[in-house]
Amino acid sequence: EPTVRTELMEQIPPIAIFLQESRPKFPTAFFEYLMPIVVRYLTDVNNQVRKAGQEALLILLEQDLVAQSDIENKVCPILLDLSAPDSDDEYKVEAVNIICKMASMLSRTTVEHMLLPRFCELCSDGKLFQVRKICAANFGDICNAVGQEATERLLIPKFFELCSDSVWGMRKACAECFMAVSYTTSPEVRRSKLSPVFISLISDTCRWVRQAAFQSLGPFISTFANPSSAGLYIREDGTLSIRPPAQDVNANSCQPSHNITGMSSNANAA
């Protein structure tokens, strides 16, 4: 029964945490018995079971409970198969979504070598606009996961494609994550390549795209500032924050730094 499999998936993370805490007693139980179940349920015929499996996998990755070898040899191959060009539409949408969500939890090497090529292909998926939309909405997170070199070499051309996509929702998603993409690039790329594209979004024919671009204008401009003098920095959650001046830190040690809300690519994607 699908409901039984779904309930089982919801119990996997707490069981895995218990096994991790009791590793001397159960050194290989998770890797031998539980991880294969999680991987198998990623391709379950039932939609709810698959979603439960995906949620369980993300929790396990977030808790750092999945071995690197299992990620590279078991999880990534399944996701690459599900997101292949000839894959079922529903499976493909789910696969690209989980690829984007897990990118920030994996090592840069794993993301760049195993997932980045497929992500670039999915950005140009001409069959499903839902796939391109997911890629656009999570673009900043992928850039942050792979770093400046891979972003400028492989991702920026794909980002420009999405910024000129015929579907306005794609362009709007790009405008919303523009700051996160810009922050990962060099000052020269921001000035010579990203700025003209951003101007085109501000002048877009769709008012929803223009509105999103104007909301991202301040955050985008902030990426041109020198962090040491402007006091601006990007937190781990992707938000733009202001670090108080050094002379004020001791005097206001109980005061938290002012966080500029609405700057996160995740929040904008939501």
Automatic annotation (TrEMBL):
Q: Which SUPFAM superfamilies does the entry mention?
A: ARM repeat
Instruction: Show the Pfam families listed in the entry.
Output: HEAT
| Annotated GO MF terms | protein phosphatase regulator activity
Q: Where are the HEAT repeats?
A: 115-154
Q: Name one GO cellular component term.
A: cytoplasm
Which key words are in the record?
Answer: Repeat
Transferase is among the record's keywords: no
Q: Which PANTHER family match?
A: SERINE/THREONINE-PROTEIN PHOSPHATASE PP2A 65 KDA REGULATORY SUBUNIT, WW-BINDING DOMAIN-CONTAINING PROTEIN-RELATED
Protein name per the record:
PP4R1 phosphatase
The gene it comes from is Ppp4r1_2
